[in-house]
Amino acid sequence: MIVAATLAALPILFAKSGTLRAYMFQRLNKVGQNQRAWNFGGTLHADVTLKSRPFTIGATYAFADPLGTNGPDPQHNAALDNTLPGFSYSSLSELYAQYRTWSDFAQIGKMSIDTPFANPADKRMIPITFQGAQVRHYFGGGWNVGLMQIARFKSRTSSTFDANNLLTQVRTRGFTLLELSHGSRFLNVTADQYWFADIASLSYLTAQMRLGEDSNLTAQAVIEDQAGRALAGAIHNHTYGLQYATRRGSIDMSLGFDYAPAVSFITTNPATIFRPLGAPAPVAVGGGRFSVLGGGIASPYTDSLTSDPLFTTSLAASQSDKRSAGTSYKFALSGSLNSGHVPWAFSQAHFDYGAVGTTDETDADVTLNLGRIDPTKLYTGLSLRQRWGYRVTNTAPLRFLYSRTQLQYTF
Question: Is the confidence at residue 120, as pLDDT, over 60?
């Protein structure tokens, strides 16, 4: 009682939150090594805000520990899916100072950010976090502008913040992001300009138009070329997408489409081209030159994570993750049963990568929320979530089933 009274008298506001997870992965392949992994862990967050002024200091501790269930040397066990990961680690994943008013926001330190091509990718044990600084100003009238400089990131399987990225192990200066956004009742438009140091310049544009009370149409475009030392190789990508979304009763439905034309590079050194995964061998065209297939997105902070913003990205497949040009479609349904206690989702996607092959994916996702539901707030409490992703390709592993079982407690 004395401690509580003392804290109440201080000119600060103290808040805490967290997520605990027990997570089982199973990856079953028709061809190749089957994998599994189990882990327990999560994140514990606390922040302190001055009552009289808009300053906050926040910190998050992240940890994972399989409690010995994955064997004595899980990091070197080919039968374990270490993207979960299957081993133990811990880190101070956030430590930041923040300033916020109705018109301005600033943050510096180790922090979570959520941008289209750099985000938490929170599909495993520990979300990705970044080290740097960001500012944003809200002008009124629906306009706002943000600027971000990120020097390092901590992947979901690492305890340290590193200056490399998911495409290359070479150290870089990170990335800069400039974002301009405008929202109104009928139209929302956002322009994101990334400068990935010594890799690429990537522009991402979105425009969402409201078609009625429960429907909207959204367009997206990606324009990317190599920059600086071109550490990932020569890049030239134009991706265009369209998505129609509507709500019928209690069911949300969407149909998405993405298209990126293939690009043929003529070069004397095929190793200098950013190529799709599984791309055919370069074709000799004479004079010591080769025709090399390209045209895919190089995404240094979402590659292999299926967390990019393309409309057709699914649980285990994405045009961006394949690093390939091509055409893709996705149909999705979602809703909830029992007054929000059973959220569910289903989707079917098709990816045609041209010379690189095809992929079809069917995903199902169902959650059982075991606590009290407050429709005005995000759910906190105990939940059990099961996700399945079934992928069929014309290359190895041919058929692939992903099963993700997650017992989670949030507070």
Answer: yes
Cβ burial of 64 (10 Å; 0-12, 13-18, 19+) is buried
Helix count and strand count (H, E) for the chain: 2, 21
pTM value? 0.94
Q: Which residues pair with 221 in a beta bridge?
A: 205, 240
Query: Are the beta carbons of 386 and 401 closer than 8 angstroms?
Result: no
- Give the burial class of 239: count Cβ atoms within 10 A of its Cβ; 0-12 exposed, 13-18 middle, 19 or more buried: buried
Please compute, for residue 91, the number of CA atoms within 13 A of its CA located in the half-sphere on the CB side: 23
The residues near 138 (Cβ < 8 Å, ≥ 6 apart) are: 102, 103, 104, 144
Residue 8, SS3 per DSSP: helix
In the three-class reduction of DSSP (H, G, I as helix; E, B as strand; rest coil), residue 165 is classed as: coil
Query: Cβ distance 21 to 40 under 8 Å?
Result: yes
Type of residue numbered 149: Q
Contacts of 409 (CB under 8 A, 6+ apart): 19, 20, 381, 382, 383
User: Phi first, then psi: what are they for 355, rounded to 5°?
Assistant: -65, -15
Q: Which one, of 21, 115, 18, lies nearest residue 367 by Cα? A: 21
Band the pLDDT of 319: cuts 50, 70, 90: very high
pLDDT higher than threshold 70 for residue 294: yes
The closest of 167, 179, 132, 133 to 153, measured between CA atoms, is: 132
Q: Are 132 and 153 in contact (CB under 8 A)?
A: no
Q: Cβ(156)–Cβ(117) under 8 Å? A: no
Compute the distance between CA of residue 339 and CA of residue 207 in angstroms, rounded to an integer.
32
Q: How far apart are CA 236 and CA 100, in angstroms?
A: 39
Where would I find the beta strands (DSSP E) of 51-199?
A: 55-64, 89-100, 104-111, 129-140, 143-154, 175-183, 187-196
Q: How many CA atoms lie within 13 A of 237 on its CB side?
A: 35
pLDDT, residue 338, reads 94
Please give the C-alpha separations between residue 185 and each of 25, 103, 177, 209, in angstroms, as whole numbers.
42, 20, 26, 9
Q: Amino acid identity, residue 195?
A: W
Cα separation of the two ends of the chain: 23
d(CA 71, CA 294): 41
Tell me the backbone φ, ψ of residue 79, rounded to 5 degrees: -85, 0
Pairing of strands 89-100, 12-29: unpaired
What's the rounded Cα separation, in Å, for the pair 148 and 374?
A: 34
